[in-house]
Amino acid sequence: MSYEYILVDRPADGVGRVRLNRPQALNALNSPLMDEVNEAMLAFNDDATIGAMILTGDDKAFAAGADIKEMDGKSQIDMLMTDSLVDRFDFAALTKPVIAAVSGYALGGGCEIALACDMIVASATALFGQPEINLGIIPGAGGTQRLTRALGKALAMEIILTDRKLSAEEALRYGLVNRVAPLDEYMDAAISIAQKAARRSQVAVSLAKDAVNKAYETTLAEGLAYERRNFLVAFGSDDKVEGMRAFIEKRRPQWTNR
Ligand code: DAK
Hints:
single chain
């Protein structure tokens, strides 16, 4: 499959990578680019040889937001009628973990698409922000909700209402990202995390991802019940039998992802 706006590869065993590739526009997210991202991510998700995905841009920009030049020509009704799961970056619906490798600008929709991933690895130059307020709009793909849950109300308000940017180190301190690495190491760090997940049982990883994401959606009691159900599903898997047997026999487990 060849794409116009993204690059797709497998940088390590079991790891699929999607790279946004509009460097002249700082990887601004236009509609065809988002369609390609969606298609490539779904293809990796359906590929049994892939256990985890990386979504990234380039060193200068992860993504500087939705494409303002494209949105400039659109009406309210255009936005309503083209609103889709793609626009809302629903990576929680994928069964495999998605790791954002973020360097440079992660602004507006670029920040939101990173927040929609399961984990974020940042380069030291990463810059997170929601500058929509400068355009007379507000975040529309999860920024007001995911940033508030991740950072708390006070800081989320400042970022969204006043265009306060977060540096990589601040993002780490506030728990927005998993780790920060130098520019020439952040991609390897992201690949390393992806590989660690990809080497586990895909069944268990998928059930665990689903249960963690549920914590955002429910009360504690409902979340605990949901976790228990996922635990019991994992307990019925072939990989549970293999994992426990391998431990007792002091060998590496051979997952069949069943
Ligand atoms: N859209 C289109 N083009 C962009 C862009 C963007 N978001 N960001 C940068 N570019 C383009 C610039 O226009 C320029 O193109 P040329 O003029 O060379 O043709 C090129 O990328 C390089 O940018 P600059 O010359 O501006 O580079 P600088 O280093 O000087 O500045 C910057 C970098 C990131 C500070 C600056 O480019 C900037 O402020 N960019 C805009 C950032 C921004 O406002 N982002 C938020 C966009 S609004 C929705 C869900 C979500 C959204 C919308 C709808 N639905 C559910 C329907 C999301 C909305 C947004 O993200």
